[in-house]
Every structure is written in C-alpha cells, then in structure tokens.
Design goal:
Low-confidence stretches: none
CATH class of the largest domain: Alpha Beta
Strand content: 15-25%
CATH architecture of the largest domain: 2-Layer Sandwich
Largest sheet: 6 strands, mixed
Radius of gyration: 32 Å
Mean pLDDT: 86
Number of helices: 15
Number of strands: 18
Strand order of the largest sheet: 10-9-13-14-16-15
Length: about 450
C-alpha cells in the first residue's frame, strides 16, 4: 500500500511548509515528497508542473541552509495518468539543515517523527552538529549565524593581521560548508561565554568588594579582564639609599600568561564562566575543563602542551599574544624565581586552577611576623609600642579603621591589615561592620 511514513510525504499542492519536510528529510534518512497526491495515496495531479517545480527549487535554494541542492532531485512523474512532482531528498552531510529565517533553533530545524515533520529538540540539534563536526567544539557549526566582528576587525587591524573573508576561512572561522563555526562565535560580539571577576575583602570569599562580568568577543574580554586585574595590582615603594624601588603585588607577565591560559585552554563546550578571584594575598584563575586526555599535571609543569582549542591558539599565536605553545606555565613560574612564595597549579577532571601569590603581601606578612612573634627584646618592645599606639588612637576616636593605623604608624596597607588581624585574634580589638564600613573597637 502506498502510504506516508518516515521517508514518504504527500501534498495535494505546493504549500510553504514543503520546505520544512525537505529540511527534515535532509536531517534524517532522506525521503521523497510527492506533490499532487492526496493523503490516502491517490493521485489528484498538478495543474502546472513546470511552475510547481520552479517554486520548489527556488524555495530550496533561497530558504534552506546550508546549501542542500546537491542532495535534492526535483522531477515530474505520472501517477494514474495524472502529472505529479516528485522531490527526492538524500540525507545531507552538513546537518543540521535549517530554515534561513529561523536559524539553528528548534523552530528552524526539522526532523521526521514517523510520518510527521516536527521541530528538532535542542539535544537532537547538538547531536547532529557533533556527528557532522566531530568532538571539536571550535570546529562545529555555530548555532548563531548572525555574527558581527567589530572588535576582531579592530584588534586584527592594530596587530597588522589581515581579517577578510579569505582569512576567516583559513583561520577556520568559516567552515567548508560556508557557515560560521563556534570559533567565529567566540570572536564575535554575540559570544555568550563569560569571564567573571570578583574582588574580596581579606583572604576568604565572604565579603565582596567589587565584581564584574564580561561577555562578547574573547578579544574584548581579554583586554577588559587584564585592565581590571591591573587596577588591583598595587605598587609598593621601598628605598635603597637614594633609589626608590617600585614593586608590584603581582608580576604583570604572570597575570598576562595566567589570563591567556584561561582563555585559550578553556573547554567552551560547557556554559559555565571562567572565574578570576582577587584576594588580599592572591589571585585565583579557575578555568572549566581539566587537562586534555593523556596529559598529566607533571607534563604541563615541564612545558608539554596538548591543545584543546588548536585553532583558537593559532589565532592568538598569529596575533602575537602567545609566543609558543606550552610556555605559559613555565613563564609564570619564572616570574616568581626571585620570590619565596610560588604559584600553585591545581587540576581536577573538569577544572584547571592557577593561584598567583601576592609577593608584597607575603613579604610584609613575613616582616610583621618577625616583629610580632619572635622572642627578642627589641621585637617585643616594638610590638608593645604598636599596641599602645593603636589602643590610644582607638580610645581617642572611639574606633579606628585600617587607614588610621597606616597613617599613625607609617606602615603599608598590608602591614596595617596584618597588625589589626593579629590584635583581633589576640582579643585586644574587636571588629564590627563589613567592607568599607569595617571598624575596630577596643575590647574592654
């Protein structure tokens, strides 16, 4: 019996939703669409075969993306002595196929379910993309094809690197099917992957001082994230004779390499954000995606690099943002060669974390600990003097804040924080309030 099924569809005449069925056949196992046939399989014929065939071929060419015409044959036939049109569709090789005006979303992507044409689920769409492009996220076709590249164009121009249509193909922003890839999505203003930055009071995630969320082109996120971190990378001055020595909390090169590592090596197949947390004593970079299979942390520490995002890394290399693959972690460690504190690299099956210690904080902490905790007569005397000075100031004002201690004792911010923490732990002072309203009172 001639009946509709997963690979067969009947239409009495040409209607607009014929495009949906053609998309569904191309996304599934192929099929044949008959125009001029009733739902029961009997022929009713087509009045103007040539006009109907023209409308079908124009609709396929103009409305279906990627180009599916090479998988479609449109021909006239005869059934029960009546002229009909047969549209034979093969399974396409660039799935998912979709309606141009709807995009790669359920309302634009169709599949066959029994004898019906239905919208594809999000899961079905992602599976088709994976089947077509393999496991590489950056090589897969972007779900969003309406992309803009204003930041990328400007950035490439400043670096004197060409960024035309030809270059976009060679850099794999445009795939062999002529569609934008996920790599293009990452460099576009439409990129939804985020970097979240937060500044905390002290060394715990209990009190926020500031936060910012970045989205859009990874190139823009990179610049904004770096500038944000640098605002909190304070400079401490010391004097050696007549010479002034300025020392940053964190080596700028270490920040740069840690940030680039977080952007280039992240697993973008997950939707969670890259997290950058700035504490009083350290910065933490937490990236989604553990080590590439077959690579151990010891390998990474030796400079071995297995790239998850080969094409993204290549773009950053061409833009002279990275010099060579596998050198980032080595550079970070080299930045701390002359310091007692060292960076810490941690990894799990799904995350990668780099912790950069605040060199000035730890140097100040060591000095204060030497003053407050050694048993010598001089340090004990100095400790008592500082406590008395702080208590006297507290009694006069009723309470004190950190800046009061800095000015009264002539010490740095880090030293004042450590001293107040020490006196609070010993019960000499008690603290009330949070962040900017944090005040210290004498514990009577």
């Amino acid at each position: 019996m001639f009946a509709e099924n997963k690979t067969t569809e009947f239409k009495r005449e040409y209607v607009e939703d014929i495009k949906n069925t053609i998309v569904a056949f191309a996304n599934c196992d192929g099929g044949t669409l008959y125009i001029g046939v009733n739902d029961d399989g009997t022929a009713c014929g087509v009045d103007n075969v040539d006009d109907t065939m023209l409308r079908v071929t124009n609709a396929i060419r103009d409305a279906v993306r990627p180009d599916v015409t090479m998988f479609v044959e449109c021909r006239n036939d005869v059934m029960d002595e009546k002229a009909i049109v047969c549209i034979i569709v093969q399974r396409g090789t660039a799935r998912p196929y979709y309606l141009q005006g709807k995009g790669i979303r359920p309302e634009g992507v169709y599949v066959r379910q029994g004898a019906s044409t239905v919208p594809a689920t999000d899961t079905a769409i992602l599976n088709m993309i994976k089947d077509t492009s393999g496991d590489s996220y950056e090589a897969a076709r972007s779900l969003d094809q309406h992309l803009t590249f204003n930041k990328a164009v400007d950035f490439f121009s400043k670096r004197k690197v060409e960024f035309g249509r030809t270059q976009m193909r060679s850099l794999h922003l445009i795939g062999e099917d002529g569609m934008y890839t996920n790599l293009a999505f990452l460099l576009s203003e439409q990129c939804t992957h985020m970097i979240k930055l937060a500044v905390f009071e002290g060394s715990k995630k209990s009190i926020f001082r500031d936060r910012q969320e970045l989205s859009g082109s990874l190139l823009n996120q990179m610049e904004e994230a770096f500038n944000y971190i640098e605002r909190y990378n304070r400079t401490r001055a010391e004097f050696s004779g007549l010479d002034r020595l300025d020392m940053r909390d964190y080596p700028t090169e270490a920040i740069r390499e840690a940030l680039l590592n977080a952007i280039v090596h992240r697993d973008y197949s997950f939707s969670g954000a890259t997290l950058i947390s700035i504490f009083e004593d350290r910065i933490e970079f937490v990236t989604i995606g553990g080590l590439v299979k077959g690579i151990a942390l010891d390998d990474v520490m030796l400079g071995v690099s297995a790239l998850r995002n080969q094409h993204l890394a290549n773009i950053f290399y061409r833009l002279r943002l990275i010099e060579a693959y596998g050198t980032g972690i080595l550079k970070i460690n080299e930045c701390y060669d002359n310091y007692v504190v060292k960076p810490v690299i941690e990894t799990t099956s799904n995350a990668f974390k780099i912790t950069l210690p605040n060199t000035n904080f730890h140097a100040e902490e060591q000095k204060v600990q030497n003053i407050l905790r050694t048993g010598g007569t001089t340090s004990a005397t100095k400790k008592e003097e500082r406590i008395n000075t702080v208590l006297e100031l507290c009694r006069c004002k009723g309470f004190i804040v950190r800046s009061d201690v800095e000015m009264e004792l002539g010490v740095s911010q880090s030293t004042a924080i450590l001293l107040l923490r020490e006196l609070t732990d010993e019960g000499v002072l008690i603290k009330k309030g949070r962040t900017k309203n944090l005040r210290y009172y004498e514990n009577k």
